[in-house]
Amino acid sequence: MKTTLRALVGLSLVALAVVGIAFGVSAPGAFHAPAAGDIALIGLGGLVVNRDNLNTIYTGFKTAFQGAFTGVTPDWNKVATLVPSTTKTEDYAWLSQWPKLREWIGDRQIKSLAASGYQITNKPFESSVGIPKDDIEDDTYGVFTPLFSEMGYAAATHPDELVFALLAAGATTECYDGQNFFDTDHPVGAGTVSNSMGGAGTAWYLLDTSRPLKPLIFQRRKDYTLKAMTDEKDEAVFMRNEYRYGVDARCNVGFGFWQMAIRSQQTLDETNYGNARSAMMGFKSDEGRPLGVKPTLLVVPPSLEAAALKLVQAENNAAGASNIYRNSAQVLVCPWLT
Questions:
Q1: Which of 20, 58, 233, 235 is paired with 1 by a 20 to 30 Å CA distance?
Q2: Judging by beta carbons within 10 Å of its beta carbon (0-12, 13-18, 19+), is residue 237 exposed, middle or buried?
Q3: Strand 186-188 relative to strand 123-132, pairing
Q4: CB distance 261 to 182 below 8 Å
Q5: What sign does the CA torsion over 35, 39, 44, 50 have?
Q6: Extended strands (E) in the chain
Q7: Is the pLDDT of residue 303 over 60?
Q8: Is 103 exposed, middle or buried, given 0-12, 13-18 or 19+ CB atoms closer than 10 A?
Q9: What is the reported pLDDT for 240?
């Protein structure tokens, strides 16, 4: 017991000496302000958790997040137009009128935009993680850096998920004219027009992405931003002994002009591809004037990659003759489609 007590007393004296050095007590009755480097002795091998160090850690996490975020080459902007948003809901009544010029004879012909009530309402999205405060104090926070890189990647590809999920749902989701985006009876003039080629196989899509307004819309109210909750007064820090980090954004997706897209579940071959191209280029306005639509992008899921590449990149077709559709469109193989 005496040996144990002596050891404890010895350790206590060492601890007091360390504290004395840290706070400037060098002899009985003497005190001086601690030097800049002295205070680090309190850490005793760990990390001193203060505001400066937390900010430094947060900067490292943000660097990992931003590096992954900017390193992504997205696909959504190949099929959708970015529309900045300034309010909760944006109205796209103007989609009911295809902008075409006419010879000005007499008064201007004013087209009402009130017929369409198509709106896109922004939605909040988030992804958050909690890191135990002990891991920060124990200087093991570096193991979380890949997590923030992955969070940056997830944020950068989130618009891809939204846009291509909407494209895949186009046969069951309404657009500005009250019909499903891909439908067999869009009202045009006194009749109807189809941009759905039918079939029962895997869906593929032919789009005109050459215009300022692409077939889909990505509406962004607030961009993806990484935030931190690390104040000692924060509830999570006090109650659960953890720091929280998260990314959030406000955005949504919607449809543009249905005339810029065709969906088919028929076999992706020369005949059906040609029929889809002819149908698109034959679209006309309510007044019967050609819209000038020209298919530029063939969008397929991974299961149709080989068929798509053979169709628009091979020099010869399946019969060995010259491929008349070579380079007629770019191919986008989308992993978000099935």
A1: 20
A2: middle
A3: unpaired
A4: yes
A5: negative
A6: 80-84, 89-91, 119-121, 123-132, 186-188, 191-193, 196-199, 204-207, 216-229, 242-255, 261-265, 297-300, 330-333
A7: yes
A8: exposed
A9: 80
Answer whether 184's CB lies under 8 Å from 194's CB.
yes
With a CB cutoff of 8 Å and minimum separation 6, the contacts of 277 are 206, 295, 325, 328
Residue 242 has a pLDDT of 85
The amino acid present at 117, given as its one-letter code, is G
Question: What is d(CA 182, CA 265) in angstroms, rounded to the nearest whole number?
Answer: 12
CA dihedral 204, 210, 215, 220 (to 10 degrees): 120
User: Two tokens at 19?
Assistant: 């504290």
Torsion of CA 325, 290, 179, 121, to 10 degrees: 90
- Measured distance CA(27)–CA(36) in Å, rounded: 20
Hey, how many other C-beta atoms are within 10 angstroms of the C-beta on 92?
20
Domain boundaries, the chain: 51-95+114-333
According to the 3-state scheme, what is the secondary structure of 160-221?
A: HHHHHHHHHCCCCCECCCCCECCCCCEEECCEEECCEEEECCCCEEEECCCCCCCCEEEEEE
On the 0-12 / 13-18 / 19+ scale of CB atoms within 10 A, 43 is middle
Q: Percent helix, strand, coil in the chain (nearest 5)?
A: 35, 25, 40
Residue 70 φ/ψ, nearest 5 degrees: -75, -15
